[in-house]
Write a structure and sequence with these properties.
Number of helices: 6
Strand content: 15-25%
Number of domains: 1
Helix content: 25-40%
Strand order of the largest sheet: 1-2-3-5-6-8-9
Length: about 220
């Protein structure tokens, strides 16, 4: 029997948690994804929204490798990033950066250039679906490559300098902000979703820049 949602303010903390995890287990059984491991629920829900643009998109199970793929739609290596923010209005600076880790590893540096789709999602606290999703399609993604290469070279220089000084290289990642993505890709070439529905990208960024999108209310 499927678990029924119970709206009862008299439930104690233990009962509320048991109900929440029971419902979550039903989703895990359907998707095969551990939803609370490394915020995996964010990948699942963002993918559900992106199916509007890439119908065959599926999450790759596990932490290693690509986050998703959609061979039937010409996407083989999709990377997804997500994050949240405590602000009350959604702005460009609220969005998480596209961060790529383990850049001290030549193989990890090279793998970035295999990605043919990049997704950036903003989540409000304790909401399962993203408020906004921005997707860089395969036709546009190579425009980011020169910037990525530049950031990698800068990072390598820092790694080598710290190593010569006998220091730990620290966090070996590089990141690209939404502002940088917009500057290189241009607004009209991005795929945008707001509250689960696709929105003309110019309209979306007008709302974003005018701080019209309320969050964490």
């Amino acid at each position: 029997m499927k678990t029924q949602v119970i709206s009862n303010s008299n439930l104690n903390i233990k009962e509320k948690l048991e109900l929440a995890f029971s419902l979550m287990k039903e989703v895990v059984d359907i998707t095969g994804v551990n939803l609370i491991d490394n915020y995996s629920y964010r990948e699942v829900t963002a993918l559900e929204i992106l199916k509007d643009f890439i119908p065959s998109i599926k999450k790759t199970i596990g932490r290693a490798g690509d986050d998703a793929s959609a061979p039937n739609d010409g996407y083989f290596h999709i990377e997804k990033k997500s994050g949240t923010n405590k602000n009350k209005k959604l702005t460009m600076s609220c969005f998480p950066k596209m961060e790529f880790d383990k850049q001290n590893d030549p193989a990890r540096r090279e793998y970035i250039f295999k990605y043919d789709g990049l997704s950036l999602s903003f989540f409000e606290y304790y909401k399962p679906f993203p408020t906004a999703v921005i997707f860089v399609p395969k036709e546009q993604i190579k425009k980011l490559h020169p910037l990525i290469k530049q950031k990698q070279l800068e990072a390598i220089s820092i790694f080598e300098s710290r190593t010569k000084l006998g220091k730990n290289i620290g966090r070996d990642s590089i990141s690209i902000s939404l502002k940088e993505i917009v500057e290189l890709i241009k607004i009209e070439n991005l795929i945008c979703y707001l509250h689960g529905s696709r929105l003309d990208s110019i309209t979306f960024f007008n709302k974003l820049n005018n701080e019209e999108i309320l969050i964490n209310q």
